[in-house]
Amino acid sequence: MIRLYGDKRSGNCYKIQLLCELLALDYQWIDVDILAKETQTSEFLALNPNGKIPLLVDADGWCLSESNAILNYLAASSDYLPVDAKSLAKVQQWQFFEQYSHEPYIAVARYIQLYLGLPDDKVAEYNAKHQGGYKALDVMEDQLAKTAFIAGEHCTVADLSLYAYTHVAHQGGFDLANYPNIRQWFTRIAGLPGYIAMES
Ligand SMILES: N[C@@H](CCC(=O)N[C@@H](CS)C(=O)NCC(=O)O)C(=O)O
């Protein structure tokens, strides 16, 4: 059985948990507390020298880190990962967008507000994260005006990559009132058979 190391309040970890539930995969979840620095122990660093969750350990001991790589590995041969080159490239386009133009803003603003309690010395950083985060939300809103899901008419791992932190963006102070297409997309994803909500 595969083992997944993660924290269910982390969007990067939740996206893996969500895919596992949508695919009804058998897995063992091992909770890792980031704030207690459990990613920095010698045992954990032996599995992922980068000291980050999520982490997948396969039945044969093979380790895989980076949330979107884990998603794509688990989704191989399922409808969540297309095989034709152009469709696959579009999925990856949105996953790279998530990691470079979305998560560093939206997830970090959420971390500053939810985990750190928005201390005074983080307010400037928090405000800067909002600028970048709204830009990413604008890009998503435009795409979701054209297609039901982010990379086309079918739900793929790209949707899970982006859903994870977007649907809790309000916990980082983002107001989604002016993003109706994103909010309708939330409803479509939450209606998928096997959907599981993120732990709060
Ligand atoms: N690019 C990585 C980011 C992973 C990441 O930043 N994980 C955070 C939790 S969301 C973490 O493990 N932080 C603990 C630490 O840096 O010590 C991914 O997508 O998996």
Automatic annotation (TrEMBL):
Provenance organism: Thalassotalea loyana
One Pfam family from the record: GST_N
Entry superkingdom: Bacteria
Domain GST C-terminal per the UniProt entry, residue ranges: 84-200
InterPro entries: Glutathione-S-Trfase_C-like, Glutathione-S-Trfase_C_sf, Glutathione_S-Trfase, Glutathione_S-Trfase_N, GST_C, Thioredoxin-like_sf
PANTHER family (UniProt xref): GLUTATHIONE S-TRANSFERASE-RELATED, HYPOTHETICAL GLUTATHIONE S-TRANSFERASE LIKE PROTEIN
Family: Belongs to the GST superfamily.
Segments forming domain GST N-terminal: 1-82
Name of the protein in question: Glutathione S-transferase
